[in-house]
Design brief:
The complex is a heterotrimer. By secondary structure, chain A is an alpha/beta fold. Chain A contains nine helices and ten strands. Chain A has a domain of 172 residues: P-loop containing nucleotide triphosphate hydrolases (Rossmann fold, 3-Layer(aba) Sandwich). In chain A, the strands form two sheets. Chain A has a six-stranded mixed sheet with strand order 6-7-8-3-9-10, sandwiched between helices. Chain A has a four-stranded antiparallel sheet with strand order 2-1-4-5, covered by helices on one side. In chain A, helix 3 crosses helix 4, helix 3 runs parallel beside helix 5 and helix 5 packs parallel to helix 6. The chains are: A alpha/beta, B mainly alpha, C alpha/beta.
Chain lengths: 246, 277, 289
């Protein structure tokens, strides 16, 4: 198991967002998290990346308990990549600097090597000509792809994608999804929170439906999305279909 | 390609209007300027005022000593601004440290910014330049250094708050992104937050530096002769105010480059901020 | 067509300026009634003062010893306090008709109407200053004096040459500062202070090695104010002797009368008596050369 969440609980004041959530992700697996807003998808990803502290339960990365207070959070975060809905590129740095910042400063790789790798990735996703541009010159879809590259160059064990297409115009969604599909082809272990049911169906090995802070139902996409067992899953999907997003 | 007749008419009309506005502005400025000039020079006391404030001989006589004093102002401005900016940045970073273990540090930093923004600079200079030497400690620095320290500590408090505002204006998602890449808190501050924070508050920082330029002259109450003091000596000697006018003009000239830079940076920052993708 | 808005703005501003011009004070009325040769030009108690029947005298705040006492010029104590009331009396203004007003140095020399009839505040008479103000006849001969503390390195100085390596100080706007730059010419730039209190603090701190003040102030400070104060010596008078005079508005009508009053005080010995009373013990300070 690359990732193993066991009975994770997270509260914000009186609100319980994650309530005894358990989830496992194996090597090379792609798991899609679906669920209504507030169901805890983003919170779970932030907890896995140790950006938020859990209130109970355990999270293990490659068998190691990363929620132990004695673990060095910075070291753990080097092994996990997190891509945000709002890309969060650093506006004062060029695309290239954005990508090479962590490799050089965190992983202590030589600058030339980091730059080379960055350019390779950019070429691969068709953004080589944007290497020296500033983020404000890129479209949303381009920025998001740069954000994904930025997370990838650190060779993470696990890539977390938090609704990475939700902030994009529809015509830009495709290029990001294509990139994610390619990553799956490379064998990247990924957990993605998404509203794109069609995409989840294509790319995910497993779909997990989060409801009221825990995994209500999970299984192969055809099953969870096509013929769910739980009533609430069905209700959720019905609303999605009504909104024309399935 | 040549524009259509309609477009040519529009261009001609706009040009006519523009010329009309410029002429009107020039005319009204000339009229008002003349009126002001007549008002001032026609006043009964004008001759004596001119003698008292605009005497060219006295101006020339004291220009060298005033310039010499101005040199002190300039040196202090450069040193004090750099030190105050550094101190301010440090205190701002300390004030934004998170976590209960840093509470004493944060409390101290907060106490500092609250007290020294409240204390008038004159009083701080008096305390430093007259109080500290009174303690007769070994290796007490000279009054210029002590006065400079007073200025740095007082302005540092203001600048700390400006920097802090800048740091807190950087969206927390930036820090989240930096941390999730594995950067430590210090690295995140250094490479992601501070560069953005400083760019954002460059306009108010520069404004404070322009103000610092004038306050630096207060060091003269501790003994050293700055431009204003040199002018004051000339004024007393001749019972004439022209040296003050000379000093004033020199100060403006000294400030012009800094003010120009401030305006340019402010404009550029506004443009960058508002030109989102 | 010029827009109505522009016309209104320009017209309005022109009107405002014209109104301001109208506020400019008219020239002061020409000199008073013609004087017949047999009439005294200084009619006692009825001079052309700011307030008819009253004499307004200005001095700075704080008013220092031994020139005044307790910072209350109205008590008539201190050398200048006493001289002021004597002058007033000679002009026909008993103490009850004298009012005091606080006047800074800048107020005293500024162009424009003055808040006082005359100002008494250790003003040295210099030809340069005569371009801006009127002076009465002198009422006191000034000697600049170097003072210090016993622990200072110049406590035992015997000549001006001994002072050249010292860090000296003076109050701004005094001829004491000029005495340093013209007579002593030290190698380090002299320090200048807003007032003698600050200068005194600097001297006690050791920030300066010595302070230059006029002789009476020197005696007062070393006797009453400084811990372990000591007078090093008087600086020589070079060129025209430095003297204090009363300050009046340039071309004031009172100058002649006030000067005459001071002359009377000198001629009938009052000034000497006042000096003995208030500036006693100012003999015997060593002379530096």
């Amino acid at each position: 198991m690359v990732l193993s969440c066991d009975g994770v609980r997270k509260t914000f004041g009186a609100a319980v967002v994650l309530d005894g959530l358990s989830l496992e992700v194996g090597e090379h697996e792609v798991v899609a998290l679906i669920g209504a807003s507030g169901s805890g998808k983003s919170t779970l990803l932030r907890c896995v990346n140790l950006l938020a502290e859990i209130d109970d339960g355990t999270i293990r990365l490659d068998g190691e308990d990363i929620t132990d207070p004695r673990t060095d959070a910075d070291l753990v975060r080097r092994k996990i990549g997190l891509v945000f809905q709002s890309y969060n590129l650093f506006p004062h740095m060029t695309v290239l600097d954005n990508i090479t910042l962590a490799p050089v400063r965190v992983h202590k790789r030589p600058a030339a090597e980091a730059k080379e790798q960055a350019l390779e990735w950019l070429a691969r996703v068709g953004l080589a000509d944007k290497a020296t541009s500033y983020p404000d010159r890129l479209s949303g879809g381009q920025q998001q792809r740069v954000a994904i590259v930025r997370a990838l160059v650190n060779n993470p064990r696990l890539l977390l994608l938090d609704e990475v297409t939700s902030a994009l115009d529809p015509e830009l969604v495709g290029e990001v999804l294509t990139m994610i599909r390619d990553l799956k082809g490379d064998g990247m272990t990924m957990v993605l929170a998404t509203h794109e049911m069609g995409f989840a169906r294509q790319v995910a090995d497993r779909v997990a439906f989060l409801d009221r802070g825990s995994v209500l139902e999970q299984g192969p996409p055809e099953q969870v999305l096509g013929d769910p067992v739980e009533a609430r899953t069905r209700q959720f999907l019905a609303r999605i279909i009504e909104a024309g997003r399935l | 390609m040549t524009p259509s007749t309609i477009q040519q008419d529009r261009i001609a009309y706009r040009r006519r209007q523009a010329i009309r506005s410029v002429l009107l502005a020039a005319l009204s400025t000339a009229v008002l300027g003349t009126l002001l000039g007549v008002l001032i020079t026609g006043a009964p006391g004008w001759q004596r005022v001119r003698q008292s404030f605009l005497d060219p001989h006295i101006g020339r006589e004291f220009l060298p000593t005033i310039l010499q004093g101005l040199w002190l102002n300039l040196r202090m401005l450069v040193v004090c601004s750099l030190c105050a900016l550094t101190l301010g940045l440090l205190v701002a970073v300390l004030r934004t440290l998170r976590g209960p273990v840093f509470f004493p540090v944060r409390a101290l930093a907060t106490l500092y910014t609250y007290s020294f923004r409240g204390l008038p600079l004159i009083i701080v200079i008096y305390l430093f330049a007259f109080g500290i030497p009174g303690l007769r400690l070994q290796a007490t620095p000279n009054v210029t250094v002590l006065g400079g320290a007073a200025i740095v500590i007082t302005y540092g408090a203001y600048l700390a708050e400006v920097f802090r505002a800048g740091i807190e204006s950087v969206h927390p998602s930036q820090i989240a992104a930096a941390r999730s890449l594995g950067l430590s808190y210090r690295q995140a501050m250094r490479f992601v937050v501070l560069p953005q924070a400083v760019r954002r508050v460059a306009p108010p920082l520069l404004n404070d530096t322009v103000a610092l330029q004038k306050d630096v002259g207060l060091i003269s109450l501790a003994g050293p002769i700055d431009a204003i003091r040199a002018a004051q000596i000339g004024v007393a000697q001749t019972a004439n105010f022209t040296p003050y006018v000379v000093a004033g003009v020199l100060f403006v000239l000294l400030a012009l480059p800094l003010i120009g830079i401030t305006d340019w940076v402010t404009l550029r920052a506004a443009r960058r901020q508002n030109a989102g993708a | 067509m010029v827009s109505r808005y522009t016309l209104t703005t320009v017209g309005g501003m022109a009107l405002v300026l014209a109104a301001l011009a109208g506020c400019a004070p008219a020239d002061s009325p020409s000199a008073g009634a013609s004087v017949s040769p047999s009439t005294d030009i200084c009619p006692a108690g009825t001079l052309d003062t700011k307030t008819a029947g009253k004499l307004t005298i200005g001095t700075d705040n704080p008013a220092y010893e031994p020139w005044f006492s307790d910072n209350k010029p109205a008590n008539g104590k201190g050398f200048e306090g006493a001289v002021a009331y004597q002058v007033a009396q000679r002009l026909g203004y008993p103490a009850a008709n004298v009012t005091w007003t606080s006047v800074t140095f800048n107020n005293a020399i500024a162009p424009g109407p003055k808040a006082f009839d005359f100002d008494i505040n250790e003003f040295s008479i210099t030809p340069e200053r005569r371009n801006a103000v009127d002076f009465s006849s002198p009422y006191y001969l000034v000697r600049q004096t170097v003072i210090t503390t016993k622990s200072s390195k110049i406590a035992g100085a015997k000549s001006i040459a001994d002072l050249r390596t010292a860090k000296l100080g003076a109050q701004v706007g005094t001829t004491s500062y000029q005495a340093i730059t013209d007579l002593i010419k030290p190698s380090t730039q002299p320090q200048v202070y807003n007032n003698n209190d600050d200068a005194k603090a600097a001297l006690e701190n050791g920030t300066i090695d010595g302070l230059v003040v006029d002789l009476p102030t020197a005696f007062y400070m070393t006797a009453a104010e400084l811990k372990q104060g000591v007078i090093v010596g008087q600086l020589p008078q070079v060129g025209v002797p430095e003297q204090f005079g009363l300050v009046l508005d340039k071309d004031s009508k009172l100058t002649a009368c006030v000067s005459r009053a001071v002359d009377q005080l000198r001629q009938d010995g009052t000034l000497a008596v006042l000096e003995k009373t208030w500036l006693a013990g100012t003999g015997g300070a060593p002379e530096l050369s």
